[in-house]
Design a protein that fits this description.
126 residues, mainly beta, 7-stranded mixed beta sheet, 4-stranded antiparallel beta sheet
């Protein structure tokens, strides 16, 4: 069973917007920080954004600050990523991830997460 399932990725023109969603199915993720990562072909997986367990604290990669917004709805066990002013360099597979149970604060490290989704593709054309 896949712990997390992403949706919302598609092709979009530069300057456009997308909203990604992630639903948890393995457990209730309300006691864990969660995050979004992305991986472009031939590159390593990189941090995009993270949010603490209750949604009051967020961190972002410098490359997306001011353009992307992470949010969560613990009642629905869901995570979102609002992406605005998209650029061609945002093209990648986007992954949702959750930290271990009771790891409540944000992390920008891939190693800080133990549950992952299978990804949703975002393609931005210029």
């Amino acid at each position: 069973q896949v712990p997390l399932a992403e949706s919302g990725g598609r092709s979009v023109q530069a300057g456009g917007s997308l909203r990604l969603s992630c639903v948890g199915s393995l457990r209730n993720y309300g006691d864990s920080a969660m995050g979004w990562f992305r991986q472009a072909p031939g590159k390593e997986r990189e941090f995009v954004a993270s949010i603490n367990w209750i949604g009051f604290s967020t961190t972002y990669a410098d490359s997306v600050k001011g353009r992307f917004a992470i949010s969560r709805d613990n009642a629905k066990n869901t995570l979102h990523l609002q992406m605005n002013s998209l650029k061609s360099e945002d093209t990648a597979m986007y992954y949702c991830a959750a930290r271990p149970q009771l790891y409540t604060e944000t992390s920008s490290s891939v190693m800080g997460y133990d549950d992952w989704g299978q990804g949703t593709q975002v393609t931005v054309s210029s």
